[in-house]
From TrEMBL, chains A, B:
Origin species: Aminobacter aminovorans
Protein name: Homoserine O-acetyltransferase
Family annotation (SUPFAM superfamilies): alpha/beta-Hydrolases (SSF53474)
Lineage, top ranks: Bacteria, Pseudomonadati, Pseudomonadota, Alphaproteobacteria, Hyphomicrobiales
Pfam families in the record: Abhydrolase_1
Gene3D superfamilies: alpha/beta hydrolase
Domain AB hydrolase-1: 75-319
């Protein structure tokens, strides 16, 4: 185990841990004494009909979702809804490589799939909160992959679904890109097969990852217009790479990021239907807003459109933001106001 | 010096070497006993008015340009034109890190800029062939960067210019991407600061580069539609990465690729005008067809459009090909027929 303060309460704020006991994973191993981190806002009404589940993306935790997406000014308003923000397994806060004891610590942390997360979240929602139907499941990127998994796996439980900047099945393009990201970490001799003493030993790999993520995570327009000035307050391209991208990844745990990458790369709701994506997406009952980001190079709008066309009660709601995929972090106010507008419409639908 | 057969005549076909003597480079060093590789097709007419110069891209040599772009079926028809295809300096065939003797061998090969190439090419064209005006300068990607440099540096000599899939100044986005590419090679311990015994010692780095180039070199549509089947005859994403991308880069010389990357990353015609791009592009007299590729993620169409708007006699000719930047290699017949159509129109203009 590594005591990385980035994943502690001083950095992440308050959260609860739900005890899952031994969680048998899709790939066969059992995650012992598994814990799911969550934080909740607002009050569950008597009918238990106002619950919203918010999922997390790659490298993100519940904190960014709570900070950017939840609040009285947002569609996810705790005055109206009971909002549960849940950290994915392997994210550093829930059970993860760096916080698990032997024999599942570090490089021996088992392989986890999106389906494992969603089954764990289902137990939190049903067993702990006694909720039988969610008014909305919403998340971006890997969080959106979890939204799709919820809507296909538990169709009766999901009244509304909002996958933001995500597809129901990983694309070949992105699978290759994730290989590049994983290689960036594993090629650092300091990674040492996953048995480093501190994440700082893998700083070169983390910096390499930061630069790679920068090339697809932000759009060419972001760079062309030097939006790091207006949006992020950085003075140059180098200042942006060092002060934003490297600063973002450096405090993180490399095995955590690799665990999430493995999961990200295999997200695919058609695992429920022998590889048949149209049949999998036909299972979705939820009123669904498919919400791509206009300049996204991870999950390009045309790929999200293709999913949308296969879902019965789905509408495409394109979010215009020249940042690209990283716009998800809500750096630019125009982004979150579009998301809020669509989510309000969906919740009133 | 390394005897790498990839850059020899068995692989590259016949070419000539023009002796430049000592070439004083923009960054101050002198490239001793410099050689410029070229091959020519067709006959120079008596007025010397039918000469076309064809430049090369990153990792490419004169052979691919001759094979794909030149021929009786193409606009670059040797029955009508005198066509000179020239290899850029540092490309492996012209004077380059792996074929230069000490003290400029390998890691000590000097830094070369696009402007150095164009000055060397100018000497070949004027001193060797006695040509005072080129009917057309055409090239793709880094070849297009050379086209822009020609049109700005020697405006009176360039009657027509056709930069394909290129911009006049490197974008921030691409500069970061090239950093990622260079790091892929240099992070391989086998690279050893540039002092490997054989390119094979850097195979991991070359393979890493191959996968990175795959993520931006081919478009998301290429991957979504699994066009490696129809266009390249490969059976899967892995088959494509191994059998096309890695197979392409593995025989190459790492220092050659790094030399070209350094040059690629710094291409900027506004060096002539103190950083003022509009003023630099105003110098262009040539009738110019700016020819972006529709799905290009290296040089996106909107960036090429921005250049086009700054050139007096320029027209935008978008080439539609879902391959993205790598479409330049002419894998798909639809690509080269569009290029030919535009170049014929330009040559008749």
């Amino acid at each position: 185990m590594i005591d990385n303060p980035y994943y502690g309460r001083e950095t992440q704020g308050e959260f609860e841990l739900y005890d899952l006991g031994n969680l048998v994973l899709e790939d066969g191993e059992t995650l012992r004494d598994a814990k799911l981190a969550y934080r909740n806002f607002g009050r569950l009404n008597a009918e238990k009909s106002n619950a919203i589940l918010v999922t997390t993306w790659f490298s993100g935790t519940g904190k960014v979702m709570a900070d950017v997406y939840v609040g009285r000014d947002h569609a996810l308003n705790p005055d109206e809804y009971f909002i549960v923000v849940v950290d994915q397994i392997g994210s550093g806060v829930s059970s993860s490589p760096q916080n698990s004891p032997a024999p599942q610590a570090m490089a021996k942390f088992p392989k986890v799939r999106i389906g494992d997360d969603v089954r764990a979240q289902h137990r939190l929602i049903t067993e702990h909160f006694g909720i039988e139907r969610l008014a909305l499941v919403v998340g971006g990127s890997m969080g959106g992959q979890q939204v799709y998994e919820w809507a296909v796996r538990y169709p009766q439980m999901v009244a509304r679904a909002a996958p933001i900047a995500a597809t129901a099945r990983i694309s070949h393009h992105q699978a290759i890109f994730v290989d590049v990201c994983a290689d960036a970490l594993m090629s650092d001799p300091g990674w040492n097969g996953g048995w480093y003493r501190s994440g700082n030993d893998v700083r070169d790999g983390l910096d390499r990852l930061a630069r790679i993520v920068a090339t697809l995570g932000w759009s060419p327009q972001f760079y062309q217009e030097e939006r790091w000035r207006s949006v992020l307050g950085m003075s140059s391209s180098d200042d942006f790479i060092n002060g934003v991208m490297k600063a973002y990844f450096e405090p993180m745990d490399p095995n955590v990021l690799l665990c999430e990458m493995w999961k990200w790369q295999r997200a695919d709701v058609s695992r429920h239907t022998g590889g048949d994506l149209p049949t999998a997406l036909k299972r979705i009952i939820a009123k669904t807003y498919v919400m791509p980001i206009s300049h996204d190079m991870f999950f390009p709008p045309h790929e999200c459109e293709a999913d949308c066309a296969l879902i019965e009660r789905a509408e495409l709601k394109l979010i215009h933001t020249p940042e690209g995929h990283m716009g998800l972090n809500g750096f630019e106010p125009g982004y979150i106001s579009q998301v809020d507008e669509h989510l309000r419409a969906l919740l009133n639908n």
